[in-house]
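Dear Dr. V.,

Thank you for agreeing to look over these. As mentioned in my earlier message, I'm a first-year student in the group and I'm still getting used to reading structure tokens, so any feedback on how I've presented them would be very welcome. I ran two proteins. I've put each sequence directly above its structure. The first is here:
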Amino acid sequence: MRHAKHKYKLGVEPSHRKAMIRNLAVEVIDHGKIKTTQTRAKAVRGVVEKLVTLAKNDTVHNRRLALQKLNNKGAVNKLFTEIGPKFKERNGGYTRIVKLADKRLGDSSSMGYISFVE
């Protein structure tokens, strides 16, 4: 039985999906806010939330775990020096997804912003 095994497939192979989610997570951490499809935003939300939870406790082990997930030293450094301390007192819910009324021109996909809450 496959209870509680839901993942966003995003119409790509597993290796492509892993790379796409990693790149989206790095962009959210670097820029604070990105515009993407709603499905991709929902797929990356869980990854970013778990990384911010790791970053709240700045240890060498947590930095290495985050580097394993992101594979980007600059993003890991920003995550642990700026983003983690900002959410020290908050218990989850670090990101928000805002839906946009306009759809993408090419394929009419629903678009939205994923950003950190203030």
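The second protein is here, in the same arrangement:
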Amino acid sequence: MKKNILPAIKLTVIMILFFTVIYPLAVWGIAQFSPNAGKGEVIEHKGKKYYTNIGQAFTVDKYFWSRPSAVGYNAAGSGGSNKGPSNKEYLAQVQTRIDTFLVHNPGIRKSEIPVDLVTASGSGLDPNFSVQAAKVQVKRIAMVRGIEEQKINQVIERNIERPLWRNFGPQKINVLKLNIALDNIGK
């Protein structure tokens, strides 16, 4: 019995030290070399500070709408809805989002709405959406702002984040940065 218990206790102590001291210090040390020392990118706009790595709620027609959040964009408690695709309450919630989108975007068919505009991400705080999610909203924004669609499409193109080495992952757009760039058209 001693033969098994002592090595188990030693291994437990070593793992506790590694995972509670050494590993966190290593991750923290590496983060110090990243932009803003690992605290995320902060943008100041109109006197307010925003983190670009946390989703923001945009629902006004003159802006690109953000991806829905299962946690109300509260970074203190991230999480998905935990409801499956067969859950009637969840399906009703998604249908409500689709109906609202269609009302605010006349001329768009239900089949043209990207899934990321009507479903929340796993964290509920995704700051990005697909290029298709931006392009499907161009007509509404152009009409509300009185701007040519071409100018809005140029803003979209300038804000596309390409995947790593153009191969690993999808193209995406940070909604906060896109809306700030939209506010800066003509300045």
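From my reading of the second output: The mean pLDDT is 89. The helical segments are 2-31, 88-104, 131-135, 138-145, 149-158, 175-183. Does that match how you would interpret it?

Kind regards,
E.
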